[in-house]
Design a protein that fits this description.
With 330 residues, the protein is mainly β. The protein is built from seven helices and 23 strands.
Amino acid sequence: MELLGPLKFLPLYKNKIWGGNKIKDILKYDYSPLPNCGEVWALSAMEGNESVVAEGPLEGNTLNELLEIYMTDLVGEDVFEIYQNDFPLLIKFIDANDWLSIQVHPNDELAQARGLERGKTEMWYIIQADKNAKLIKGFAKDLSKTEYQNRLYNKTLKDVMNYIPVNKGDAFYIDAGNVHALGPGILLTEIQQSADTTYRIYDWDRVDKNGNSRKLHVQEALEAIDFKAEKEGKIDYHIHKNQSMPMVDEQYFTTNILTLDTAIEKNYEELRSFVIYIITDGKMVLKSENTNMNLGIGDVVLLPAITNKIELHPLSEATLLEVYINLRST
């Protein structure tokens, strides 16, 4: 199993009506064929969108192929017991150059009742935000289903949404059922369950170049929505340099933030899960038993569960998100 070291994957680019240029200009991804690249899927096992190893002895293998071959060595015994050959997370970068639709995702129970494998809970970490950028997270007040439907019909739903100004480093936990939308001027990374079911509620009366509106999912969304007012807003977290600091520790994923200004060693022998690194600022070198990997903003690395120790050497101050499955938190 000596082939199984830290892994980088080829990006999957998604053109979006609301996409911009920050994925190219800030994250340095080259998606030149696409006019409006709104998303990069950096780590995905979704059918039809499977990440492919970019370099090293396993170059050309998909994430799903690795999971079939290496199983517990890749994801960990406890994770494999629950998820089997389904990699449980999807990692994206999103560039919102315009408002995304107001939308909601189903939870596991509703998704499975509708013949889908799982729901979609996610979190956002803001990598860059323009002045006055904002997003929507939940409602500004409690709504009845009747008022919600009336406002949707009258096109006044946007008047009762909870708008939150955003800055670099802000983070948000978007539980399934939480209505949300990204506004223009935001570049972020999204950590989510490996699912892509989105119910579009309102799309700002937008049409494409042919005058067509995007499909809405008004009826499908009704049963999924939490109509209570949003109270949490941003994730409250703290930075302590050169230490992993908690942001989210929930059923579907744990995310810590790590800001480095000196070299550190990380020991994952007791973790019993794979680890994903998402580099959100700066540059560093990752060193393991068989690897010297240069990393910079926009890079995503998968550390297999059999990884014991690695070293991180920042070339200047650098920040990464550390993501894994903590089954002890379930």
